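Run: sequence + iron/sulfur cluster -> complex structure.
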Amino acid sequence: MKRKAFLIDITECVGCGACYEACKEQNNLPQTSDDPLRDSLSDKTYTIVEQRGDFFVRRMCQHCEDPTCVSVCPVGAFTKTEVGAVLYDESKCLGCRYCMQACPFQIPRYEWGSVKPRVQKCIMCYDRVKNGELPACAEACPTGATLFGDRDEMIEIAKQRLAENPEKYYQHIYGLEEVGGTSVLYISPVPFEELGFNTKLLKTALPNFTHEALAKIPTLVTVGGVLLTGFYWLTNRKNEIAREKFEEKKKQNLRGEE
Ligand code: SF4
Ligand code: SF4
Ligand code: SF4
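>> structure
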């Protein structure tokens, strides 16, 4: 199967939140806000629509072509699939959260409130895509602001729109080259920095740099037995502390409501 991608055309997005609702339904995620425009990414919300001035911008995992989350994970809990989706295997995850620190788009979220916490994020509706279906969010979008298909085709459509409507679009496809390319591409009526996008990202994939950087601190990335055991204990201990804090906060909130 060919490499897939989203094309998000910000000029077409009306901020209706149908993508947000469809994602919730598809992934059995609880409602976290009555207003999709006021919600935030979380372990229970894999995509949001943010209002930035006069425009609406979707945020979700970018499914980077050469993802940093994959390269920094010491146990291979993240994988880049043949269709482009970046998946996560909770059975392998140690809970170190390197993926969260390394992601250039600040996407992965941790289940702080869970007894067995996982990292959560958009998975490009992988099962649907493998079966030749559209991701739920793309299917639900009433205006065509979220398109989905072969990455080559999405790039062609984006280029064509920029070329045919130079007055309508800022002449850049975000995600074509950023961090070595992503499987979520954006086209916009205004420069991307005006919409809060990070436009300072390198054009090459980050993992090469990450490996170099991490190689300089071997104790941090060694996955050999002894270190891994210590690291695993440490991570679990950190999780316990975080969970205790979370539970305490929850109790305080409940007391406040009484
Ligand atoms: S956006 Fe972040 S979580 Fe998603 S693939 Fe890229 S590095 Fe991984
Ligand atoms: S691709 Fe699927 S998981 Fe990702 S934002 Fe869209 S509906 Fe949610
Ligand atoms: S469903 Fe389409 S138009 Fe509605 S908020 Fe999502 S991307 Fe924008």
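>> summary
The first helix runs from residue 18 to 26. Strands lie at 4-9, 48-52, 55-59, 78-80, 86-88, 109-110, 119-120, 146-150, 184-187.
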